[in-house]
Specification:
The chain has 230 residues and is α/β, with parallel strands linked by helices. It is built from eight helices and seven strands; from the N terminus they run ααβαβαβαβαβαββα. The chain has a seven-stranded mixed sheet with strand order 1-7-6-5-4-2-3, with helices on both faces. α5 packs parallel to α6. The radius of gyration is 19 Å and the shape is globular.
Length: 230
């Protein structure tokens, strides 16, 4: 007698959605190189830009602020760097604060030296401790700070106080980078609702293909800067 199985591990990977498969096949069947200027190249570029615009619209930013990656880990590696520049500033970011419950890919600190990375404690319920964040910001007053805080914990499902944390970080002149991988497609997650400066995610958590993700910057960040550079 055959037994049916019910897949319940969507927090790890969701099965590929039929509409995502159809979109992938249509894109792969387009013969042009998106960097070419002939008709086929322009058609391929249009597919790419349409996808970029769709993601930007969902996050509440401009299409030019979306960068495609191979997933959330590559996006974190791109954005968690001391060389994240603000406006005409050339001095590097000095401190990376990380919620103690972040995904291991973020806890590594990526391109920040280990001495510049500090973990911020969680509450007994598993959410970022805002008093602990206040203390960390006070200890590093006057420094250029980045806070990395996930929207939803990948193991416990606890929703993190991203907006409240963003208000504190912005008041200290810092930036907030949010791993939205477990939030996109589950709860409303935009730049407006989160207050984050950067959002990133992997598509395979919401029915997209493996090996695909995105990093996006908020509109207000690009208004403050003519461009944001990683």
């Amino acid at each position: 007698m055959s037994k049916s199985r019910i897949y319940l591990d969507h927090n790890a990977t969701s099965p590929l959605r039929p509409e995502a498969r159809a979109a992938m096949l249509a894109a792969m069947e387009a013969p042009g190189n998106a960097s070419s200027v002939h008709a086929e190249g322009r058609a391929a570029k249009a597919i790419l830009e349409q996808a970029r615009a769709t993601i930007a619209r969902g996050l509440g930013t401009a299409a030019r602020n979306v960068v495609f990656t191979s997933g959330a880990t590559e996006a974190a590696n791109l954005v968690l760097t001391p060389m994240l520049q603000r406006g005409k500033e050339t001095a590097p970011m000095e401190v990376l604060l990380i919620g103690a419950g972040e995904h291991p890919a973020v806890l590594a600190g990526h391109r920040f030296p280990s001495g510049a990375v500090e973990r911020v404690a969680l509450t007994p319920e598993g959410a970022l401790s805002l008093p602990a964040l206040d203390s960390a910001l006070a200890r590093h007053a006057g420094k250029r700070i980045v806070l990395a805080l996930q929207a939803v914990n990948n193991e416990t499902g606890v929703i993190q106080p991203v907006r409240e944390a963003a208000e504190r970080v912005h008041a200290a002149g810092g930036l907030l980078v949010c791993d939205a991988t477990q939030a996109i497609g589950r709860i409303e997650t935009t730049f407006q609702t989160s207050g984050a400066d950067f959002l990133f995610f992997s598509s395979h958590k919401l029915g997209g293909p493996l090996g695909s993700g995105a990093l996006a910057a908020a509109q207000d960040v690009t208004r403050r800067r003519k461009r944001w550079r990683l």
